[in-house]
From TrEMBL:
UniProt key word Zinc: yes
Keyword annotations from UniProtKB, A to Z: Lyase, Metal-binding, Zinc
Naturally occurring in which organism (per UniProt): Actinobacillus equuli subsp. equuli
Keyword Zinc recorded: yes
PANTHER family for this protein: CARBONIC ANHYDRASE
PROSITE patterns linked: ALPHA_CA_2
Protein name per Swiss-Prot or TrEMBL: carbonic anhydrase
Catalytic activity reported: hydrogencarbonate + H(+) = CO2 + H2O
């Protein structure tokens, strides 16, 4: 019964994870900022009382040589890109091949960006963090997180930021999100939550260890589109264990 209720909560959460305006208003500033999320609406209470919340600092991890992730063989295709007022989000307009995590298949539903990063390493933020949100046939969520550091221009980011989208504005483009995933596929694993309301728990997090590069101009363009710092503060790890899965 408990597992069924948790899955139902996660399914509801996925419908909210598109950052739509039809749900209670939340933001990153003022009276609707992260410190207030848990009291804005009853459905957001886990943002305040949850014990397995995300993001976290990933400094303390237990190393493992066993890997449980197989990436998608093909993600290339047309995506709808939207500035929804909370983030820049890209949603596939056609079916894409799944990833496999813990012998379960998950399909990419959307990916979006946070500036600066939400997860930290030794309390250090990166300029950008991308979240690739996947869902299994049973409704379970898995999020792959990729950090970006300032460096050389990243051609894979260019189609996303060529047009500075205003809030509510959309466009379409041919993208290959596989190019936004690091070749070094060592990563951290953690049971966590959505980093936005309703902060639902039971989310499988995979945070890649190796950051990708983005130029200063690309970082500035991403910040301009998003228009604010949209990172939730790090949350207590509590009794959870962070696993560092290496090859």
């Amino acid at each position: 019964m408990k597992k069924h209720l948790l899955l139902s909560t996660v399914l509801i959460a996925l419908s909210n994870f598109t950052y739509g305006d039809s749900h209670p208003h939340w933001s990153y500033e003022g009276d609707s900022s992260p410190s207030h999320w848990g009291t804005i609406d009853e459905s957001f209470k886990l943002c305040q009382i949850g014990k397995n919340q995300s993001p976290v600092d990933l400094s303390q991890a237990i190393a493992s040589t066993k890997q449980h992730l197989t990436l998608s063989s093909s993600l290339s295709g047309e995506y709808q890109i939207e500035n929804n007022g909370h983030t820049l989000q890209a949603t596939p307009t056609q079916a894409v091949s799944p990833i496999q995590l813990d012998n379960k298949q998950f399909i990419l539903k959307q990916f979006h960006f946070h500036t600066p990063s939400e997860h930290t390493f030794k309390r250090k933020h990166f300029p950008i963090e991308a979240h690739f949100v996947h869902q299994s046939a049973q409704g379970e969520l898995a999020v792959l997180a990729v950090m970006f550091k300032q460096g050389e221009e990243n051609p894979a980011l260019t189609p996303l930021i060529t047009k500075i989208l205003a809030k509510g504005e959309t466009t379409k483009s041919i993208l290959n999100p596989q190019q936004l995933l690091p070749k070094n596929q060592e990563y951290f694993r953690l049971n966590g939550s959505l980093t936005t309301p309703p902060c639902s728990e039971g989310v499988n997090w995979v945070v890649f260890k190796t950051p990708l590069a983005a130029s200063k101009a690309q970082i500035d363009a991403m910040k301009k589109i998003i228009g604010q710092e949209n990172n939730r503060p790090i949350q207590p790890v509590n009794s959870r264990i962070v696993i560092e899965e290496n090859k």
